[in-house]
Amino acid sequence: LLQRLATLAATAWKEAQQSQHQFQAQQHEVAQLQEQLSRARQDGERWASALQRAQKESLEREATRGAEQARQQELIRDMKGRLLELLREKDALWQKTEGIATPAASPVPRGAGLCACCRKDFRLLSRRYSCRLCQGKVCPTCSVDVGKRGRCCLLCYQHGHSQAP
Predict the structure, then answer these.
(1) Which residues form a coiled coil (predicted)?
(2) Does one domain contain both 124 and 78?
(3) Where are the beta strands (DSSP E) in 14-164?
(4) For a tag on the chain, would you pick the N or C end, based on fewer CB atoms within 10 A?
């Protein structure tokens, strides 16, 4: 009986040591899991913080974009209004000038350094043309190319086309 008790005690002792080793291994595993959990929580907090910052920045950008869009829409409205005003003004001026006869081109003396239409000074390198009708000197802006017949000033060109059938 004593021997049986001794073997049972030895077996119990071995089982207790195995259980203690298992317990220590499990405690070590629990410690590692707690450490991983702690790191995961820290990562989660960092990600949550980063997400909040990103959301805040996104909302700020959206608010800025909305304000900019509102300003642009207001500017477009103002520009459309101004365009309508200018069109009305142009129509009113056109109606006022419709009955006015175009004046005949006033010949400019031949040696003058001014354009016969716009009175712009001719410079050393500026191109000047001689009107084939009134013989006035005109700049490229105030002249019209009439093909093989040469160039003429805008006033003569308009006067010639208004008399054409």
Answers:
(1) 16-43
(2) no
(3) 129-130, 137-138, 143-145, 151-153
(4) C
* Alpha-carbon span 51 to 48, nearest angstrom: 5
- Can you give the residue range of the structural domain that contains 83? 1-98
Contact between residue 153 and residue 131 where contact means Cβ atoms under 8 Å apart? yes
**Residue 84: what are its φ and ψ, rounded to 5°?**
-60, -40
| Interatomic CA distance for residues 47 and 114, integer angstroms | 76
Q: Are residues 91 and 120 in the same domain?
A: no
Model confidence, pTM = 0.37
Residue 59 to residue 52: CA distance in whole angstroms: 10
60 and 26 inside one domain: yes
Regarding whether 125 and 89 lie in a shared domain, the answer is: no
- For residue range 19-68, list pLDDT tens digits in order: 999 999 999 999 999 999 999 999 999 999 999 999 999 999 999 999 99
In the prediction, which pLDDT does 130 show?
85
Other beta carbons within 10 angstroms of residue 136's beta carbon come to 26
Q: Across-strand partners of 121?
A: 114
**HSE value, Cβ hemisphere, 13 Å, CA-based, for 28:** 6
